[in-house]
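Standup, Tuesday
Yesterday: got the pipeline producing structure tokens again.
Today: sanity-check two examples.
Blockers: none.

Example 1:
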Amino acid sequence: MLVVGLTGGIATGKSTVSAQLKSFGFPVVDADLVARQIVEPGTPVLARIVQHFGEDILHPDGTLNRPKLGSIVFNDESQRLVLNGITHPAIARNMFWSVVTYWLKGHRICIVDNPLLIEGGMYKWMGKVVVVYCSPEIQMQRLRTRDSSTVEAASARIKAQLPTAQKLDYADIVVDNSGSPQDLQIQVDSLVRRLYKEAGWWRLCWLCPPIGLFSATWTLFWRYIRRLRRQKKPVE
């Protein structure tokens, strides 16, 4: 099974691309959905968050007040790192078992939708990395329109993530969402055709797990080698 990491900066259109890929029948493991599930009332993760940030970040019904927590972590790097340290391991475990489940069901391609795919290091375990991009100006405009936020608030949320331009260094495929919805759909259609081609001998790998394991290991090894080559500075 080809595991495809899908990422992009906030308000770049990653969720739109994810929904379009899902419409083609691809299973999607959504990190944002998992992140909401692991902080439902009564979960160990929510208990740890409350222990650190206090009960003020809860609604009266015991659910997490996301805007209030967001106002804390998006303006304080140290607090954001604490939150990430609590939530990221649980999110990664949940997503891993979801991918395994889709593999056991015989899916050819699985999409891992994660806005922090690069920052969290999960990109290292992807067969392909797709980055959705748009210019910083369009990103800011879309975010302010979507959330009715001020320039300062939108800027703080954007700065809390790795700049989208830097994420391009990790991309195997780039989807440029700076144009119209029709332009985006054309690119997604092309992406789908490419992913089907890249999936290769998926049924053989599924029917014979040792071959699938070897294929996955070989793919990850060569992706690691390519990353090293890209990071190596040219000799003066």
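Example 2:
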Amino acid sequence: MGGFCDLPEELLMKIMLQLPIKSLVCVKCVQKSWNRLINSKAFVAEHLEQAITNTNSSLFIFNYIFNKLIERNQMVDEFVTICNSNHTEIQHMISFSIDFGPPEFPTNYSNAIHCNGLICLLDTHHRFVSFVNPALRRFKQLTAPCNPYSLGFGNYFTPIGFGHDSTNNLYKVVRLVISKFIIGAQIHILGIDDDDSWREIEVEIEILKNYEIYLLCWHDEQLYCKGVYYWILNAGAEFEMMILFDMHNEKFRTIRLPIQDYPPNTKLALWNESMVLFRYPAYWLEPFGPYEMWVMHESINGDDEKSYSWIKHLTITQFEFHYEPLVFWKNEELILKCYTRARANMDHLASYNLRTQQLRRLDWSRLQQIIVYAFGYVQSLVWID
């Protein structure tokens, strides 16, 4: 009678796909054929598709907490799950702190982007672009490119984007270079380019040459969604657009944002695999409302060109406190953060259900922290050496 090792590879793959990642990492060490199977592109892709399909209750949160020993804010990284209860007004958030990297790994980040279980991090000085898969506990660091445009332009912004070219199964990181105007871009393909190699690409958008961009892309105003990275550009009340970068054809283009009647704050978020735009009032405005949620609709025209439009999904007329949208959890639950009047401290977190329109307070022991980034997290086997 044959043993477990003698099972057909197709059946073995189905069994392995049911195991959690920690078990798969251990199983790889048992037998060479198992290691080869688990590391295969087919297995990694099937495992990722299964992980994305399954409802995910985990959030990944980057936040600052004041460290009394060093007398300054320090970045803390942790997984958060929410214990849902249909019978109380309070939901409980449970944190699991993680050891995020080796000692030489950056501890403060100006940006954090999630794609298929990989997290891309840009350090506050924009010197390194780092990648981590927390489930595999694997780390990689690139040296950010030198800025060949800096001479004669003075100060400049260098926002990054990160995403997946699903057609070629490639992961790419792109960097814009901006000094009043968008003056260039550079791209690195993980696993293909050398670690310090960045390729120049053109930003062929005529309209951007006519506007001086003085504010670009806080972390709330950029997002990766289905092979495209988006940044909100702001160059005055008459010019509010998003610039997008297609990870496959490596082309830039712009789309207009919904027309606004007053200058609210903006926030991009993922909802049901679609990109949404929130418009909400500044914290000093009274009363606190309205809150608008716009869903971006994508279609293909006769020339196989994508076109985009916006549909207003809902309007929340007024909250009792000033809330800022943070991240969606399980699609219908929008996590909100509430600040004090002076916006110096976070007062509490809340969950708003889009379907029932019920607002519930979240009980979290980390309320003294300042949340910087938050996104839904998928555990995966994806890695690129």
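Quick observation on example 2: The radius of gyration is 22 Å. The mean pLDDT is 77.
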